[in-house]
Amino acid sequence: MNNMKYSICFISFFFLFMMMMVNFFFMIYFIMNDMVILMEWEIMSFNSLSIVMSILLDWMSLLFMMFVFLISSVVIYYSKSYMQSELNLSRFIILVLLFVFSMMLLIISPNIISILLGWDGLGLVSYCLVIYYQNLKSYNAGMLTALSNRVGDVFILIVISWMLNYGSWNYIFYLEFMNNDWEMMMIGSMIIMAAMTKSAQIPFSSWLPAAMAAPTPVSALVHSSTLVTAGVYLLIRFNMMLLDMFFLKLLLLLSGLTMFMAGISANYEFDLKKIIALSTLSQLGLMMSILSMGLPDLAFFHLLTHAMFKALLFMCAGIIIHMMNDIQDIRFMGGISLYIPLTSLCMNISNMALCGIPFLAGFYSKDLILELVSFSNLNLMIFFLYYLSTGLTMFYSFRLMMYLMVNDFNLLSIFNLYDEDYIMLKSMFVLLFMSIISGSFLSWMIFSYPYMIYLPFNLKMMVIYVSLVGGMLGYFISNMKIYSVNKFLMTYNLSNFLCLMWFMPNLSTYGLSYYFLNLGQSLLKNIDMGWSEIYSGFGMMQVMKKYSVFYNVYQMNNFMIYLFSFIIWMFILFMMLMFNN
Amino acid sequence: MANVPLYGVKTHAQKVCSLYKRALRNLEAYYDRRNVYRYQAVLLRDRFDKNAKITDMRKAVELLKEGEDELFKTQHPIPKLFPTSQGGVAHQRVVTPPDWVIDYWHPLEKAHFPEYFKRREQRKKEFIAMWEKEYGTADKKEEKH
Amino acid sequence: MYNLFNSNKIFFFILFFSTLISISSNSWFGCWIGLEINLLSFIPLISNSNNLFSTEASLKYFLTQSIASLNFLFTILIKLTLMKNFEMNNFLTIMMNSSMLMKMGSVPFHFWFPNIIEGLSWLNSFILMTWQKITPLILMSYCMNNYFINIIIILNIIIGAIGGLNQTSLRKLMAFSSINNLGWMIMSISISETLWIFYFSMYSFMISILCFFFYILNMYFINQLFINNMNFLVKINILINFLSLGGLPPFIGFFPKWIIINFLINNNMYLMTFIFVMMSLIMLFFYIRISYSAIMFNYMKNKWFKIYIKNKYFLFINFFSFFSITGMILSTLFFY
After folding, report:
1. pTM for the whole structure
2. What ipTM was estimated for this complex?
């Protein structure tokens, strides 16, 4: 622990960073030569179907892997200080490494079976990471996370059984040729459902804020940048097939609603990590919706830039929580920019990048997405969902900034804020650099030719309008004067509804278990301990016992009677024999 | 023993105090700026003080019930909690085992920390000596259970 | 082992050959003679002047068997006088079958069977449950009235299962289990003789293990199984052999039952199959009740209490139990 050189964190950091560099160079090489490598290892083959482990390396998987390696390496470096006095540090690091490993399996495989390997691994490892602090809250959160993700696993399993029709599970070969197949449509809708669970879209979105019970480095790596984007990545891979489906339109609506819902809830939330989680949810909705409009490369672009600044945002939040002695409630915070300028710098820049302030990372992807949205043929509702959510992003980011940086210091009277934890800061500066430049460098690299956008002036300026309005609202909402009227209490029911994520956490925990538990109890009482007891085991035993006792009475007769009855029987037979003839 | 309340049995005054404290905590969740909170807290105190002189118990109980109802209807969905308090984020995150657990370690485990256990044994002996000096030696008969 | 290796062994020898005489003779009188010799040689084996119960049992055995033989003789004489040669009559067949059923202690003439077994030692009851059934079964297979026999089979199966349910004496319990298995045996011999040989040999094998176990451990009642501090391995062996006898799949006892059920279904005897399976469930229930509670519920073991059963036959029996456990699996090697 004391020696930095030989600690497990440093070794893992070094390894992951080297892997990142390797992936980076290969990615450049692949992009330049427009190369794809597909490797297959046949594990077994039945009559006509073969189970293969396949690896697909193209610029997309290499780029995504590079980002995952980068974030995981800095996160592990960061946990060297964040998890300093942790007893089971090795377990923690090993879990994170396992997570990275299953993410790799997911990224590189174009085969639905080997995807399941990574997909299931992600679910399992993220469960282990969520319950890492073994208290009641994290157990509940872990169970919610694991079970929600399990739904997606089941959908992937169903997809595997549907793909049996084609004789192989290498979906990548069937995407274009089997486009109009009915089976392929089923597969596509299953895949969309699976992606919705992993990326926490609306019916399944309650697990993402709950998963914030995990340690903050885990939130930075798993629940903001990589795990939740697995669903988006899967849909990017499948995008070719989904284009004409009705289900994709449903996905557009649901992801737009997710974006909107998360944006509003983030404004009502007071838990620092949950605010960031909800903003993640909002950005995931953005990726999903742009994906369901048929622009997968934009979704991928936003996925990567978002991973950068969101991981950074979480790491800043981690430092703040660390210094505030585990306090996560932003009502306790305020004015910390005076005490921890460097962390506040990182925090503000990542927040700005999230809002899409020009020439930071988020600007390039978000601006492009929104302009293409206004460019394409959409109805009013989807249009408003997009723009309101953009405004809401600005809104909660400014509110968060005001609460953390500007307002009065509101902590307990004894505190210890310090900004000299250079291990954490160093790892954050890597991501700070990336969240400034990654937008521009990615946009130059992955788009072979620029998008042509032609818009009227007002529509072009729409993003700026909503952002300005959102920012101003965020500033005003967090200012509180003595005589201000509490709007929360005036619209108490509505506020409750919006604050608790449209009651989704309650619905997906109590709502699911309540009726089934009641049914189970009544079944246990009436059937298991009632009717079926009488009419199977217990009642059978009673009847059998009665017969047995009844029989034993006959058994206890005098011996002579038996012999006599036998002779009488023979006599009767003999008589019948005689008279029959 | 007087300060140990019977479980579930509270006097009326205790109930009112409890309501007042919970209402203050609820206000804290709504008004996070200190000066605003103080202003609202004074208003709340005033509401309580207005009814402090009521001697008619029927009316007092009625008022208490109304107060509880109002608190329930206006409780904040995200209460402001300290992390280690009940329901907080870091509640029971760190488990501190009681001291006597160390006495039940295996000798091989104890051998990892020779200095600590040497001192611990020394302290135990000193404590027993101090105890016996103050209260006398334990009766031999009582040692057997 | 006392009975087998003293001067009685000449009777054992005669018992053995009398059976061969009756099953290989080509006239009914030869069969009858074999039966009589069999009876007269078995009586000295079971009667023990030191034990009142076995004397009583031998007397009862003599009475029932002689009445059955008498009726058998009567039937074949009638056949000789009334019928022409090679001609049979339904009632005559039933009479002949009844006397044979009486001889082997089948329902509804079985009442002597548990009573007599109660007075026998384990080895004698083993002989009574296995060897003594060969002759009557073979003789019965020469002329069968299928309607009558089917009723008898069903009765055997049901009475064997229900009668054994309330028993506390191990010997009576084994007697009822034997009655139940007799139903299976009559069924198998009415289908084919090879099938019967298969079933019979498997059944004798399983019952021999159990009888020798109880003989060695000197067990006669259920509660002895509970309160004695046996070696745990012995208890497990008893459990496995009981399960095998009840016909639970991984053990050898399942094999013959499986094949019989297969034949029954091939011959469209679905109702019979249903009754067979249901009643073997009850059989299995009371087998398990014995061995399960011996291991689970009433299993007390004192730390200072150590019994070393010094008996060389244990090795022998463990060897047999090994076959009872793995026989089903090993048999796949032969039938591949």
Report:
1. 0.73
2. 0.86
